[in-house]
Amino acid sequence: MKKDTVWFVWSGAAAVHFVVSGGIWAVGAAVCPLFLLLFRKSAASIAVFILVLMLFSLRAVWVENAHVSSLSGEETVIQGTIEDGPHRDGSLVRYTLQKQDSERVQIRLMLQEKTEIPISASYAPGSICSIRGALSYPSTASNFHAFDYRRYVKQQHTYWEMEAASVEDIRCSGMSRNPLYMLKGWRYEGVQRIDTAFPEPLKGIAAALLFGERDLLEADTETDYQSLGLIHLLAVSGLHVGLLCAMLYFLLLCIGLTKEKAEWVLLILLPFYTILAGAAPSVLRAAGMVSAFIIWDKTGRKSMDPFFVLCLAALLFLFIHPYYLYHIGFQLSFLISASLLLSRNILHQKNRWKMAFYVSVIAQFAGLPVILFHFYEFSFLSIVLNLVFVPFISVIVLPGVIVLFAVSFLNAALFSLAVVPLQEIVSFAHVMLSAAGSWNAFTYTGGKLSLVLTGLLGTAVYLFFIRLEQTGRYRRLLLPALLVAGTLTFQKALPYMDNRGYVTMLDVGQGDSFVIELPYRRAVYLIDTGGVPDFPKEEWEEREEPYDPGEDVVVPFLKAEGITTLDKLILTHGDIDHYGGTPALLENVGIKEVLYGKGGNFKEAEAALLDTVWKKGIPIVPAGRGLAWHAGSSSFQVLAPDGDEPAGNERSVVLRADLGNTNWLFTGDIGRSGEEELLSEFPDVKADILKAGHHGSRTSSSPAFIEQLGVKAALISAGRCNRFGHPHEETLETLEKAGAQVYRTDAAGAVQITFTEDRIRGVRQAAPEGGQNCEEG
């Protein structure tokens, strides 16, 4: 029955997913292995399979029903213990407060003065506090394929955020004596020690390797590790726990402890280190496995099957915390561990470099379904880079930061001297990593996999490892390898077989960004990229990772759609909320040509942007009245500008499009004078669907303009609670009187309209129930 353990894990996972997320496919996923067991007439395995299915279903139902907040949302003061934080990013500080009933509340504190920084830092884990503020729901995903923060924190027993206006709204009265909070306090102090003592190039990777904390890691560096398939090296996992245990075990033996006593010390310390390292699923799995094998060895019994133990550990973790199923670290940790265990035959190599190559290939191959499902792309460089970076991190960096961390407490002068070599080595490695990250030719971007294709790809990968473990003969690997290649090719080809086109108004805050995908992927156009005005701030207020709609919204959406090249990037005019995200596009997506409003006397920032585009070798086409083109059954015509307008809103590119046998008009930020000129030049122009000018401002969308166009639906892109009051009530009333259906990003997030060559097929919204917090964009 041991060989069927993997199907028991499958059964438990399917039961959890069906209860938490629904979907009839989950029932099918659970039943399919049952038919296999019936075919093999394994009565004991069938009984256990059904038992696991029932138990995990009941457990998931119980957990789901238990997730009910004890707060009404009307409370203005809450009390509890700081469990995590503070995490400061500029003027924003975040904490996690745990109430006495174990419910957690996310705390957001906006600092008003630089002098408040040390006060906010004093509210460390274990502080018993009373906090005054306003409760609101955590934000849900406002763009398609985006990270759903509300769902994520719900899985942490968190349902509310509280906004505290100043440090005066947080009152703390002592520290908790709970050992768990004490350990978390030590973890916080350790991270703070790294932040203050270590140099900038080293502090991020040191905090990640020692304490599982990535807040100190530079955003670009973390992106490079993620895109190149090396992010697992920054997570405290089996590799790190194994190395730390080996180093400590050797040290204990050197100071005279017996083997038995050294093992007991490891067993006692592992749970403490698990908490100090953040208690992520990968850490729990690694520490649990090491502890299990030490205990089993102490019993004096024969060696146990590690794959069987791994499956039991997965079942145990899922039963205790069903939401681990949706944790990327849990998925990758168990999948990669299982793949290496299933490949034991081939990994018995005398040549260490050959074995290392096999380990790298197997680990990347095993994680492929999870990586593509969550990140939409896979870099084939990861196989080679893992060969270099795994020993680099495990042999040089990890031992180095451990020694440096200890030395930082002993002698400041010695630390300053010892840190230099490792700092230079790590800095050079990260420069090389950044260079490799720019080699897009080695990256497969297929878009977000459906659950069906993810399951098919996962099955093919599992079959690959089963055959590899059973025979080791490469000819039998041809079928699963073809299944993997076929699935990836089919995923890449899907858009070119789709007779539907899509117009997506992305939620980029107070800005514009529209993606037009024509049927059969005949062409992809992007109108504007969003952007954030750069308001003056003091140095201490500036965010480490400022919001960039190009990098944070537009590029991820394009990758999720499998779009690697834009046929046209249309930048309507020279306001930053329309072109500010362009640099991120230039770095991550191929662009065949840029259309920019015809005219002269560009603003300084406009000229700098166009110069950057030109240096990239991308053609810049002046978009003026009369420019037109066709793509399939769709046609496009530029109605404005004529080139005489001054730089600014009135020079906006106005684009008429025929999509799905429907008239569309994208108006940029033109005002009422521009609308009047447009009607004068094109008195017969119509627009069934209008992109309302200037984010729904009262200076655009005049009643005469709306009436002449015959608008049936209007798209308004505006930031939630923006300081300009967009969209204006007057504009909304004008559209309502015209009988137009209004879709707003500030109310319901991104909007996607589906069409075929003959008609509009439907409209969907990313966040139809709203629930977004006010954020300036």
Automatic annotation (TrEMBL):
It comes from the Bacteria. It is a multi-pass membrane protein. Keywords: Cell membrane, Membrane, Transmembrane, Transmembrane helix. SMART domains: Lactamase_B. Its main location: membrane. Residues 510-720 form the Metallo-beta-lactamase domain. It is found in: Cell membrane. The chain crosses the membrane at residues 7-36, 42-62, 233-258, 264-295, 307-324, 330-347, 356-376, 388-413, 448-465. PANTHER family: DNA INTERNALIZATION/COMPETENCE PROTEIN COMEC/REC2, RECOMBINATION PROTEIN 2. This is DNA internalization-related competence protein ComEC/Rec2. It comes from Salibacterium lacus. The lineage of its organism: Bacteria, Bacillati, Bacillota, Bacilli, Bacillales.
